[in-house]
Every structure is written in structure tokens, then in C-alpha cells.
Write the C-alpha cells for this entry.
Amino acid sequence: MGIVCRMIEIVEYRPAWPQEFSKIGAEIRNALGNQAIAIHHIGSTSVPGLVAKDVIDVQITVATLGDEAAGKMEAAGYECLPFRTDHCPPGMTLAEEELQKMMFRRDGRRTNIHMRAEGRFNHEYPLLCRDYLRTHAGAADSYGKIKQELARYFPEDVEAYYDIKDPVFDVLMAGARDWAEWTGWEVPPTDA
């Protein structure tokens, strides 16, 4: 099961995405038990009404990244992809461990599974993003339009798509961080 290059296609929101996440989340919970502190539906498919790639994104929160959780995921049929780090927003200086993650996927339903350590910068970022977009329809609609246009201009160029999308998203997240401070937002409880 190697990495497959697919065309970037943005589709209209599908009401089935939350149920698909619920099934995937239950399977992961069964595989990891209490080792998963939390399992969250993240990414664009977790925001009602938002256009997205038809890929379910899942974040698994663990105390520390390591072989034990990876072994359990592999035993449950998930492929561990090469160790990665997340994008660092411009103007920020973060220690490498603040951006480290493990990635998993398996045959069948297109899913990106991100395992991140609790309390790290990259653990909070996708949850804040999701909750901000869920409560700010105008920001979600604008973000969706950017993704549609990028997919139209760069349907086969994943690097160009993300080279532009990531900094645009960093601008959006500046507002999300202000919103979080103003509302007292905290990392939400597990979805699965």
C-alpha cells in the first residue's frame, strides 16, 4: 500500500461524513483503547457545509508518540507512513517536537489519520481550526472557495496546492487564535 498520487478534487459537503468518521473512530478506539486520550474528526469534512476533498481526517491524541501505539494501529490493519512534521506558520519559531506526528492509513475508505502528542502546538491547531470554521460561516465559505480555485488551477500539483493553501490558512488561524482567547476556547472532549 504505497502513496498514491490522486487528482485534487473538491466536492460539496456530504452529510454522510460524520457517520463515516464515527465508524472509523470506533475502530481506532477498539484498536488503541485508553492509549488514545482522544479521537477527533478534523479537517474540512468535520465542518458542516464546507466543501472538501472526500477524505476523512482523524486526529488521535496520545501522551507521547511511540512504537506501542503504532504497533497497535498496524495490528489493526493500518499502515504507518514515514514519520512527519506539520507545517510551521510563518513568523513562529517552534521546537521540532511541537510539530511531530505519525500518519496512518489503510485500504478502503480514503482516510488520513494523524497521531499527535497531547499539549503540542500541532495537537491544538486542527481542533481550533475546526471549531473556528464551525462557528464562522463566512470564514468557512471563503476557505472553501480558495480550495476550489486551487484545485481548479492545480488539480495534479499537490505541492502547489499546499504551498498556497497553508499560508492562506495561517491568515485564517490568526483570527481563530483571537477568537479562542476571547471565548475561552479549550480543546474539546473526544469525538470517539
Residues 1 and 107 are 7 Å apart (CA to CA). The beta strands are 38-42, 56-62, 79-80, 84-85, 100-105, 111-117. Helices lie at 17-32, 67-75, 121-135, 137-153, 158-183. The longest strand covers residues 56-62.
